[in-house]
Every structure is written in structure tokens, then in C-alpha cells.
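seq:
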Amino acid sequence: MDKKYQVFISSTYTDLVEERKKVLELLLMADCIPAGMEAFVATDDEQFNVIKKVIDLCDYYVLIIGNRYGSINEATGLSYTEMEYEYALSKEIPVLVFALENSAIEDSSNTEDVIKQGKLAEFKKKALNNRLASVWKDIGDLSGKVAISIMRAKQEISRPGWVRDNGYNQTDLLKQILDLQNQNEELKNRLEECEQDTGVDESLPFYGYKIKLHYTERCVILTANTIIHEVDIETTLDELFKFISLRLTGVHNTKDFIDAVSSFKSGYYVESQQALVVKNQYIQLGLLKQSVDKKNNEMLELTDKGIRVMNELNALK
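struct:
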């Protein structure tokens, strides 16, 4: 009888992306059905209830412990990863534990607070008491130990498994899905590289997009005979950005932005509302980004794209 065994993979996610991917590939090669990957990372009680139903259908449970404890459920005080582990034990599902060796942990690699680090140490100590537990020092070591452990578990611990009865090969389908995911990731990386190479999308209303700004002459001394000149200046979004971007490196407030637009016409100041409209256009174009300081004041900063465009516009040609 051709049995397939379903294996739940549990771990924190952001620090173990490559490790999870490698374990998934190993399980597929071992004719197992992986479960509990990215689509099942618990972040709230509702998702955890879904995960419990998936665990119920699994034959084995693989726990990978790295250097993070993960998101904590407020009701239990435990991370969702530890809750998954406890649930698998309660259902008497064979648990295979793989914990990162202490000597392989870099001091700066855990950015969690002291409480979470303490909880991680306790969880790790508890999990390593499991009969099917081992430690790993790098992704190659983890791969080898997972491959051996799952093979031994299949031989020594009898589980129901899944039996194909209609010619439908789920393992082959999962392999195809994994291949498609890899291709998708590669295409995304290529697209990002292309966007970096080409700079700003020429189809956006930026290059050559005309705008008109109203300027008023600055006067230090006002008398009854003083004539204040006003003038409308027509320019384009890219020409204005070429000028003001050099004055906006670093972090600036909104007044600095208005002053930069005003300096486009020496001796004059721009109508502030028009400058704010221009600011919003640059934000929509991805050239500027907003933030808030400790006093809740809006701050502006060139984005990576904005810096790249600034350099392109101001390059000597």
C-alpha cells in the first residue's frame, strides 16, 4: 500500500525562512506531505484554531527552534509556536525537535526583549527533553538530521498516513507548487532589479509634467511707496525636483520643504498651499516619504527612489 505521511512544520518564521524551505524540500523528497508552512503561521486565536485542525490531520510534527521566541498569545503567555508544540503533544502526535545549538547563535542575532529571550530558553530546554530531539548548528546540519529523523520515525512509529486511491499524486503536485513558488520569487527579484535599473517609470506624470507656481517678492522694509511684485513661474515637476532635492537630503520638516520650493525663485516666496500640493505629488510618486517626530510634527525625507532620481537629474552630462 502506497502511504503518504503528512508532517506539520512548526517554527518562528522571519528568522528561519531558508531553514523552513529546506525542510519542506526534504519532506517532499521523502514522499511526505508538508503542512504548517507560511499559509499557517499563527498570529491570532482564529488562525491558531485553524492550525489545530491541520495538526489533527498530521502524522508527525517537526519543531525547529532558532533564536527567536515569536509572537505571544496574551491569554496563555506562550508563543504560538510553543502552543502548537503543546497541542501536538496533547494529541499524542510524534514530535521531532531540532533546536539551534547555543554555540551557533550570534550575540546580536536576537533582537527580542529579555522576557522573550528567557521564555525561549525555557521552551528550548523543555523541548530538548523530548525523546526525538537533537540540536543543529547550520542549515546543512539541520537538513541531514531532519532527513534521518523522519526516516527513522516512519520506520519505528506507526501512523495512519494517507492512501492514494484515484491516481492523484499530491506529493507531485506539491513539488510543482514549490517549483512555481521558486520561479515566482526569482521573477520578483528580477522585477526589483529592473525597477532599480530604470529609475522612475516614464509613464508617471513626472518628467515634463508642467506646473505653475505663484511667487511673491520678499520685502524687508515696507513703506507706503513699496511695490511688492508677484510673478507666476511655470516649470515641470522634474525640473523643480532637480533643484529642491539637493536641499532636502536628510530629514526635514514641512517648512523646510516650502522654503526649498521658494528658493527656486531667488528673492521670492511661494504660495504655501501650492507647495503642499507639490509635496503630495512627490509623495505619491514615491520620491518623498513622511514620518512623525516625537512632538507629532510631520517630517519629510527622500526615499531611495528619490535619491536615485536626484542623482540622475543632477548628473553632469
